[in-house]
């Protein structure tokens, strides 16, 4: 049986977690959290990176910083994970879903402006499969209409757009370190902040509304309740697990890309024959092999495909059910314009196994079955 996902493990995780325990520091903001945060800041050339308990919480924290409120509208794709919308729905705002492009499955930058109203306050591009949205256009629209941009870069760490790291292009960027992502800490994430003036407030909200971060740095001699807040900082045990992977980020990235490229090469003929479609990576985007997917003719063929692959011992999965078709999406949001591609393309997409530790031989084996399904 070939699993769909295996959480990343490099071998140093237990040693580092043991170090945190030995140092009697297992709550948040210890040495490993600092190492991970500095690494993220250097890698993305960002003023401030704050480790969080999830990407969901990073997005919630960003939403609090923007002061988004009841009645405001936030533009985002419908083809995304629920967290993209939850953060704003929790603040009483309305997600306004805009169609995706069929090639990258990302928010269609050319359909954003038509969805802007006097209530629109921000845009949340989601970099699907670690392939960037058209950020030049999106940032230009945001500037013109005075909107903020929060990048849902949950899948985008180590990817770039015209040389710029994803997550570090908008006002805020959110990463995920869930066990299904390229680098993991079980559950976890990070918020990237470009404008330094938000840093102090972000640190306070993340620490239950207190200035404990300043206290830790010796900048105040006691800490107190300063603002509303929550608990968005992860434990050192989780940060220690993550550090073992960030240390090896390049080799993990290379191993994933090798699998991705092997999939593509193996299945390219099938693509040329018109039987399937494969992911599109625009030339100015460098991706991180977060995901390998293919598109079947339609949902019926996809169901048969998943069943066939399962019989061969390979787990493959489909992805998001568009948010605007879900009960909460209908209650809290609305779709602007025509759903030309969101539903149609999401019904065709199926993801093949992709994780650190998947071998090229396994990729070859999987591709043999894919070709078998299509009679080749
Ligand atoms: C994984 C994911 C999230 C949520 O990440 P968590 O760390 O589990 O909260 C949000 N958005 C997208 C696009 C994701 O892929």
Describe, in plain words, how this protein is organized in 3D:
The chain is an alpha/beta fold. The protein has 2 domains: 13-246, Type I PLP-dependent aspartate aminotransferase-like (Major domain) (Aspartate Aminotransferase, domain 2); 249-373, Alpha-Beta Complex (Aspartate Aminotransferase, domain 1). It is 37% helix and 13% strand. The chain has helices at residues 13-22, 31-44, 55-66, 82-89, 135-144, 199-206, 212-216, 236-246, 249-272, 299-311, 327-332, 342-346, 360-373, and strands at 48-52, 73-77, 94-98, 120-123, 148-152, 160-161, 164-165, 172-176, 189-193, 285-286, 292-295, 334-335, 349-352. Strands 1-9-8-5-4-2-3-12 form an 8-stranded mixed beta sheet, with helices on both faces. α2 (31-44) crosses α8 and α3 packs parallel to α4. The longest helix is centred in the C-terminal third of the chain and has 24 residues, at 249-272. The protein is globular and about 70 Å long. The two termini are 22 Å apart. 49% of the residues are buried. The model has no long low-confidence stretch (mean pLDDT 98). Pyridoxal-5'-phosphate binds at residues 54-56, 80-81, 83-84, 126, 152, 154-155, 176, 178, 189.
- What general form does the structure show? globular
Bound compounds, each kind once, are:
pyridoxal-5'-phosphate
Summarize the amount of helix as a percent range: 25-40%
CATH fold annotation of the largest domain: Aspartate Aminotransferase, domain 2
CATH level 4 superfamily of the largest domain: Type I PLP-dependent aspartate aminotransferase-like (Major domain)
What is the architecture of the largest domain at the second tier of CATH? 3-Layer(aba) Sandwich
**Rounded average pLDDT:** 98
Class by SSE composition: alpha/beta
Q: Order of strands side by side in the largest beta sheet?
A: 1-9-8-5-4-2-3-12
The string of secondary-structure elements, in order, is: HHEHEHEEHEEEEEHHHHEEHHEHEH
Report the major sheet.
Answer: 8 strands, mixed
Report the β-strand fraction as a percent range: 5-15%
Using only C-alpha atoms, the radius of gyration works out to 21 Å
The number of helical runs is 13
Poorly predicted spans: none
């Amino acid at each position: 049986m070939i699993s769909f996902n295996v959480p990343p493990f490099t071998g140093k995780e237990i040693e580092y977690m043991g170090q945190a325990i030995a140092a009697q520091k297992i709550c948040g903001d210890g040495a490993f959290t600092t190492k991970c945060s500095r690494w993220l800041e250097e890698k993305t050339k960002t003023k401030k990176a704050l480790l969080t308990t999830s990407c969901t919480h990073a997005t919630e924290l960003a939403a609090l910083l923007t002061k988004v409120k009841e009645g405001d509208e936030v533009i985002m794709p419908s083809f995304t994970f629920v967290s993209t919308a939850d953060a704003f729905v929790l603040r009483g705002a309305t997600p306004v879903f805009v169609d995706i492009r069929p090639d990258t499955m990302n928010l269609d930058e050319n359909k954003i402006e038509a969805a802007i109203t006097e209530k629109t306050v921000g845009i949340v591009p989601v970099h699907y499969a670690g392939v960037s949205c058209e950020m030049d256009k999106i940032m230009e629209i945001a500037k013109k209409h005075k909107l903020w941009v929060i990048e849902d870069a949950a899948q985008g760490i180590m990817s770039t757009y015209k040389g710029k790291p994803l997550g570090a292009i908008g006002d805020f960027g959110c990463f995920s370190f869930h066990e299904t992502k390229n680098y993991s800490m079980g559950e976890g994430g990070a918020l990237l902040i470009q404008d330094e003036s938000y840093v102090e407030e972000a640190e306070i909200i993340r620490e239950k509304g207190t200035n404990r971060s300043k206290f830790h740095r010796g900048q105040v001699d006691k800490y107190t309740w300063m603002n509303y807040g929550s608990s968005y900082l992860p434990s050192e045990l989780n940060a220690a697990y993550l550090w073992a992977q960030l240390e090896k980020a390049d080799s993990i990235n290379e191993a994933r890309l090798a699998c991705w490229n092997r999939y593509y090469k193996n299945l390219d003929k099938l693509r040329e024959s018109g039987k399937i479609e494969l992911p599109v990576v625009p030339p100015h985007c460098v991706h991180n092999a977060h995901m390998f997917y293919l598109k079947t003719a339609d949902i019926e063929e996809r169901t048969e495909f998943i069943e066939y692959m399962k019989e061969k011992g390979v787990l493959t999965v489909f992805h998001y059910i568009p948010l605007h078709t879900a009960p909460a999406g209908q209650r809290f949001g609305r779709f602007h314009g025509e759903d030309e591609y969101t539903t149609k393309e999401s019904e065709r997409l199926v993801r093949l196994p992709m994780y650190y530790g998947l071998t090229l031989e396994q990729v070859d084996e999987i591709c043999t079955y894919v070709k078998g399904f299509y009679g080749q």
